[in-house]
Amino acid sequence: MHTTKSDITAWSLIALAAEPYVVSVLGSYTPILLEQLARENGVLGSDHLTPCISHVIPPILDPNPSLNITTENVNVCVLPILNGKFYIDTSSYALYTFSFSVLIQTICVLTISGIADNTPYKKRLIVLFGSLGGLTTMLFFLLGSHNYYAASIFAILANCCFGCVNVLMNSYLTLLVQNYPYENIKNNNNNNENENENDRDVDVDENSSLINSEDINTIENSELGKVSSRISGIGTTTGYIAALLIQITSLLSLKYLKSIHDDMIWCIKTIIGSIGIWWFVWQIPIGLFLRNIYNKKLLNNSRLSITKSIKKGYYDLFHAANKIKDLKDIYLFLLGWFFLSDSITTINSTAILFAKTNLNMTTISLAKIGVLVMISAITGSILIPNIIIGYFKFDLQHALIGLIIWCLCVPMYGIVALSTNIEMYCLAIWYGVGLGGLSTVSKGIFSIIIPKGKESVFFSIFSLTDKTSSIVGPFLIGLIINYFHNLRGAFWVLSFILIISLPILSIKFDLSRARMESQNFV
């Protein structure tokens, strides 16, 4: 078999179903909901007794925003944890929740990678975790105004499901790229295209693949880069378009819900639960149209049990992690990605919380930020692979470096300025373009430098790197907020982390050498 347009379309449905969750729920509404729940159940830091909602807390004055960092906590709202044994800033509660959810998500991702690579259950796992994620998100309907612990648990479970779906989707990307019908490679498999399209389960034998190990060595980086970035861009764009439509719909719904019910927590949880329905329902066409692609030889001509598959997955993971020292450039890419993803991921939640607490933007205004981010992210995911890389012939590595510098402008501006709603809207557009481009280019690079037949394992390492950094970043920012009670200082940390990735990915990492190393991996 080889990759067809139908395969790419069915694959992109995974992003269409799940991306609205990570963008609208996790990126926009969950931080707002958790902060609001924490505030409604919080007390003043001055006495740990007076409820925050019964005391008017004046807006933060920021005449010199880059220097206004204080530990004064007279009017700070804190949330009692474990019956008052600990008190945390209400703004940091969402960040701590996200950090812990990523830790649990990492364990889940590592567990399912072995099943995905060593059994023919990859498609079933995508539908399973997509369904569970949708159902868990729908549980937000049941939250009350005092259920801030339950809100965190639901967020953690749904985030775990999304992480598993994301890794499985990325592992499919490598198979789609490897089996793409490149123009300079011809064989007789084209005659069997219609027959293969009718098969819902496809055993991919290494000898029958359109691109075997000898063929792939002849393909130039530029050609692989174009294909991988284009397919990745289709998935990214599809997901972002869905997220944009959901974000616009939720914004309009939020205005309507606010007019009939003054309880903002009720309005937000209704929006979140509705997005859970979207995620759940789309599992039906995914189950119907996604071909179940797996490599017959990798199964050793037998189907391993679930337990043995999990054990083999962990063995392959630790083997790959141990051998990563021999794959110098893959190691360098993952190291750079650790710092890059840490900063990029944390920027979004930090900016939303900053806009809510420091700029006192309403929930509807915050939803508008999400819409602007999505529109510009779609622009970036289309512009970068098709114009910057395709037309102007920028290679993937140079495009990646340019996007890092582009995204660095966001926290840097947060340090020196960012004091009005208009500035926040402009930064949302700027950030969205970089976000869409980075999502496309980073997955495009990694999909062409990982060893063949180890897609889920190496994308699990990719996800592990991403998720580990996502544990560190929000937790570190949460500590800073807890100590200084001011989100402005977080932009210094985010800028520094982003700068660290630049020399690693621009000077140390070599894309061509990385491909050669992966082909010799055993």
Q: How would you describe the overall organization of this protein?
A:
The protein is mainly alpha-helical and 522 residues long. 72% of the residues lie in helices and 4% in strands. It contains 17 helices and 5 strands. A 3-stranded antiparallel sheet has the order 1-2-3. Strands 4-5 form a two-stranded parallel sheet. A hairpin with a 4-residue loop joins strand 2 and strand 3 (86-89). Helix 10 (306-323) crosses helix 15 (455-484). The protein starts with a helix and ends with a helix. The model is unreliable at 55-74, 184-199 and 205-214 (pLDDT under 50).
What's the helix and strand layout?
Elements: H1 5-40, E1 43-44, E2 77-81, E3 86-89, H2 90-118, H3 122-138, H4 148-178, H5 193-197, E4 201-204, H6 213-218, H7 221-260, H8 264-281, H9 283-289, E5 292-295, H10 306-323, H11 328-357, H12 363-391, H13 396-416, H14 421-449, H15 455-484, H16 488-508, H17 511-519
Parallel strand pairs: 4-5
Antiparallel strand pairs: 1-2, 2-3
Helix pairs in contact: 1-2, 1-4, 1-7, 1-8, 1-9, 1-11, 1-12, 2-4, 2-10, 2-15, 3-4, 3-8, 3-9, 4-7, 4-15, 7-8, 7-12, 7-14, 10-15, 11-14, 11-15, 11-16, 12-14, 13-14, 13-16, 15-16
- Number of helical stretches of at least 4 residues: 17
Note the overall shape: globular
Low-pLDDT runs of 5+ residues are: 55-74, 184-199, 205-214
Overall mean pLDDT stands at 80
Number of extended strands: 5
Helix fraction bin: over 70%
Distance between the termini: 25 Å
Structural class: mainly alpha
What amount of the residues lies in strands?
under 5%
Integer-rounded radius of gyration? 23 Å
Q: Strand sequence of the main sheet, in spatial order?
A: 1-2-3
Largest sheet: 3 strands, antiparallel
Order of helices and strands: HEEEHHHHEHHHHEHHHHHHHH
